[in-house]
Amino acid sequence: MSSTAVLHGPRAPWRRRLLAVAASSALAAGGLTVLAPPASAEGVCAAPVLVGATTTITCSAGGSGSVTVPDGVSSGVVTLDGAGGGSAADGTAGGKGAHLVATVPATPGQTFNVTVGRRGANGASSAQFGVPGSGGALVAVTTATGAPLLTAGSGGGAGGAGIGSPAYPGAAGGDSGRPGADGNGLVPDAQGGTGGGPGTAAAGGAAGTGGPGTDNEGPNGSPGAYPNGSGGSAAQGVFSPTGAGGRGGAGYGGGGRGGGGGRYGATGGGGGGGGGGSSLVSGTVSGSSVTLTEGANAGDGRIVFAFTLPPTVTAVGPAAGPTAGGTAVTVTGTNLTGAVLTFGAGNPATDVTCTATSCTATAPAGTGAVDVQATTAGGTSSPSPAGRYTYVPVPVVTSLSPAVGTTAGGTVVTVSGTGLDGATAIVFGSGNPATNLSCTPTSCAATAPAHAAGTVDVQVTTAGGTSAVTGAGRYTYQLPPADIDVDLTAQPGFSLLVPYLSYTLTARNTGPGTVTSATLTATLPSGASANTLSPGCTAAGSTVTCVYGTIAYGATATKTFRVPLGLLSLGRVSVSATRTASAPTDPGPLNDSATASCTVVSVLLATCP
Question: What is the mean pLDDT of residues 547-576?
Answer without folding.
Answer: 90
